[in-house]
Amino acid sequence: MKASLLMPFLLLVTASALHLENDAPRLESLEMEADWDQDLDGSGEQEEELALTEEGIQSTGEDDQDAVESDTAVSDEDLQCPREEDTVEMQGGPGCKTCHFRLVKSPKNFQKAEKICKKCYKGNLVSIHSYSSNKRILSLASAVNRGQVWIGGIRKCWKFYWTDGSCWNFTFWAPGEPGNGHGNCVSLCTGDGRWRRIQCNRRRPFICSY
Question: Going by CATH, does the domain composed of 65-209 fall within 3.10.100.10?
Answer without folding.
Answer: yes
